[in-house]
Amino acid sequence: MSFCGVIVETAMNITFPTLMKEFSVGTDGVQWMTTLYLLVVASITPLSAELKRRFTNRTLFLWANLLFLSGVLIDGLAGHFWLLLLGRAVQGLGTSIALPLMFNIILDEVPARRIGTMMGVGTLITAIGPAVGPTFGGLVSTTIGWRFIFVFLVPVLLTSLILGLACIRATPPSSQDAGLNPLDVLLIILAFSGLIFAISNASAGALPWRFTGSLLVGFAALAWFIRRATHQNQPVIDVRLFKGKSFSLHVCAYILYEVCALALSFVLPNYIQLVNGRNALQAGLIVLPGAAIGAILAPVSGRIYDQLGARLPILSGSLISLIGLVGFALSGRRLPDGLIIIFYICFMLGIGLSFGNIMTNGLRQLTQGEQADGNAIFNTVQQFAAALGSSTAATLVAAGQVAETSRRLGTIDGSCHTFILLVVLGIAESALAFMLTARRRSASQ
């Protein structure tokens, strides 16, 4: 089910030019197909620790699967763009339950000596989606139409439902008295929605009050939520974990990595189609090698973590990814398909080595009782950072298109600005990787 959640996200990215033409929406509008989905996931995932305390794993899985299946059916039959967005939101509800549930099961049942490897397997499951999603989406949309992307997921989700009901144990909840405060849920939704909506409205031509107002709402809601959480005995998500400097460094590095990854997943398919003149299938095939390498390396790097510690995979992966980003920035105005393949392989090679291990090592800084909340934090910031990355990239590309006389030249300008920003973020992530592995070298080994 987690695989379906990621593959449908990346498969739809490749169809954006087709959706723009069919539903008469612009670049900054069509990106809400991804951004809304990620916003829903980011808004609901913080509740995962509370849901784990209140419901059995089996119950959570059942609801997640049925919600996701409903969203897929809505999108497959949608005749208007707003229905597509509704379906994406319902899918986000299912994924927001499924992703943290998968990692919670790993944290609960896997021995400590194998935790890196199995967390790598969990990362592999979510990384397979970006590996095959663009190719799958491009092949389906080019040959029989984009709607069949959703049609083909139906039997996969039904199989997932049967396997999950047969295999997932109905472990008792840790607290029957746990409850969800409606105000906390509302504040989480307002915080993430406000911040991402502000970014999406920062493109050229947007009304200033939309950006400023959304930003203020987002920060105000986030500050209010944090204030409430620090004074509650059992908060929805324990933000007091951020008092630990090492844990906070891991979360920051994780956020920067995810922003870079999702920004590239938006920019590259559009660049390949709108600048290099390829179709959706060709765009998917071009990004396939890099995405596949990143996915395959996830469990391998987890095993390296178990045997050699955190420093080697995290630091080397961060530096390799940075090299790929620098390559994109230096060649952005003239970026043929061959260079895209090379630079993306380099970037995803680094992702495969370090991304999952940053989460694993970050959770190692917590006690067993804190790990459910830590897992909720990592899954939340991952989705929020993903929404931020795709929104930022869409904003920069849209701004470039508005400023130029042709969509092709505008896409080049916007992509170049995005690549430069990602290099800055990549440098910051590499610095954090050095700091966190240097601080915790003995503990992680």
TrEMBL record:
Localization recorded for this chain is:
Cell membrane
Q: Which UniProt keywords apply?
A: Membrane, Transmembrane, Transmembrane helix, Transport
KW Nucleus (keyword) present: no
Query: Cross-referenced Pfam families, in alphabetical order?
Result: MFS_1
Task: Name all Major facilitator superfamily (MFS) profile domain ranges.
Answer: 1-441
Q: What parts of the sequence cross the membrane?
A: 29-48, 60-83, 89-107, 119-140, 146-168, 180-200, 206-226, 247-268, 280-300, 312-332, 338-355, 376-399, 419-438
Domain of life, source organism: Bacteria
PANTHER family referenced in this protein's UniProt entry, alphabetically: MAJOR FACILITATOR SUPERFAMILY MULTIDRUG TRANSPORTER MFSC (PTHR42718)
Name the chain's protein: MFS transporter
